[in-house]
Amino acid sequence: MDWEPLAAAKASISPYDLLFQALALIPFSHYFFAASFLFLIFLYSFLEIHFLQDLLTLFRGDPVTLNYNSCSELAQSVVANCKILQGRYLATPWLSSPHLQTAFLSFLGRPPPLTYRRHLFRAFDGGTIALDWLTYTDVVGGTSCMLDSSAALKGDKTPIVIVIPGLTSDSAAAYVKHLAFNLARQGWNVVVSNHRGLGGVSLTSDCCYNAGWTEDLRKIIDHIRCEYPEAPLYAVGTSIGANILVKYLGEDGANTPLVGAAAICSPWDLLICDRFINRRPMQKLYDRALTVGLQGYAQLYVFITSFCRISLLTFESSSLRDFDNHATRVLGKFETVDTYYRRSSSTNYVENVSVPLLCVSALDDPVCTSEAIPWDECRLNENIILATTPHGGHLAFYEGITASSIWWVRVVNEFFGVLRTSPHIEGRKKMQGSTMPKPLQSSIDQAPYLNVMEDGMVTAMSNEQTDAFVEDISNEHTTHSKKDEGTISDKGTSVDLTDKLNPEKQIMQQVEQNVKDLIVPVQGRIDKLSRRSRQSIWLLVYIAVITTWPFVGSVVLSVLKRRFKTFKPGTLFRK
């Protein structure tokens, strides 16, 4: 048999031709199934689906991680009585993804049917804020009904929960309706404080809300406190509303009339969240969606003077950062966008929170990253309980096969119920009632530092001694004024009074002399430091020259050695 022609024929056939012929023999349906399988793998990873993990754990869910101060009796008591926090959270199986949960909440949500009762609150600058009330009588029988009576009686002691929605959200949002309906069904009076320009109410002033604007919340709380003085006040903030709430609690400290609060999916640090939301393609979709929502908000109020100046640049914004740069920063009078983010972040105020606060966050939140959670600050504060779950999305936390309930709504309901019956809260109410407002101040303003009084007196005493000293000085001024008015007519009495004041003048002179004795050595030290700093500057210049240009440094050194034979750079170090 002649093998040479056969070998030549095989050599003439390309291996790729043989490969294509083999691939052509595979049915098309197999390619379709392979492509579908690869697409599902990509989708599973891209959407961060965790269905297989839930399946491997037999859908038992993940335990809730609690972070709180172990020395806090209040936190231990609350955690011991909150059974939901001690349990597990299992997401709805067909929503086993933070993105699926968040999208389902935004587009469907399955909110319960209800109808609010609206009250309009006029702010100090002429702005209008819509307050939507929902009470137990509104949801009796499972459906809401409009009543002709007021939302809450003046003397009613039923606790009131104030809800602060998230960015571009109002009382019509699905998660707000879930929260309001469940709380009202348990006997709470709920009021949703809509942001300015939202809730169907137009802007009536140039002032707009932002992530750090707490003045509206403060006025609303004070207003409700005055209207219903017998009712305990609670508050729930969601997303940006949670940031505003925590910032308000930190600013007012123990002076707030709130008894308890809850912050759900707070961004905490806006600067970190800004970096996060522009990091990956999926987060950029959320960034774009939020930007479109804010542009729609701004488009409704282009007739406002402040909006007219920024409207054109605002509509060209492609991200939240661009919108904040063209609109929020300008309206809020911040120097830069980062300055706005830093000053508005609630993480700076966590340590000053003085009321029981429950913080709930999902570690897979696609909008408010877990990287911004102030773990240590929350753990150090005895009033804060931080509850985190591996899954839940942004404000979603759907549970059950039908996704008819939201997990964090049940948590907040139980948390407020425990606080309502806690003996620690009664003591805190009495302390809040007896505590006078005291602004936050630095420890540098306190003793033993020198304090200069209005009349020139200098004191280094503690706060209590300073108050007594000021009181004595005021009495002295009172005596002088009486003398000028002629109330002291007896000459001998006047002479005796002058003799009594001479020791006080001597004390003042002695204090002034002591201050001078303190200033003189300090001034000498400052002069010595100035001379040392000048020597250090020349030494740094010398080091910079010899390290950057070695040849020039050697020439300069040789010239200096010739001119100053005793010159040695090392002597500067010995000085």
Automatic annotation (TrEMBL):
Instruction: List the residue ranges of the region (Disordered).
Output: 477-496
Is Transmembrane set as a keyword in this record? yes
Bilayer-crossing residues are 20-47, 537-560
Query: What highest taxon heads this organism's lineage?
Result: Eukaryota
**Spans of biased composition, class Basic and acidic residues?**
477-488
Q: Name one GO molecular function term.
A: short-chain carboxylesterase activity
Q: Does the keyword Manganese apply?
A: no
Cross-referenced InterPro entries: AB_hydrolase_4_sf, AB_hydrolase_fold, Hydrolase_4
- Keywords recorded for this protein, A-Z: Membrane, Transmembrane, Transmembrane helix
UniProt xrefs under Pfam families: Hydrolase_4
The Serine aminopeptidase S33 domain, residue ranges? 159-372
Which family does the entry's similarity section mention?
Belongs to the AB hydrolase superfamily. AB hydrolase 4 family.
Q: What is this protein called?
A: Serine aminopeptidase S33 domain-containing protein
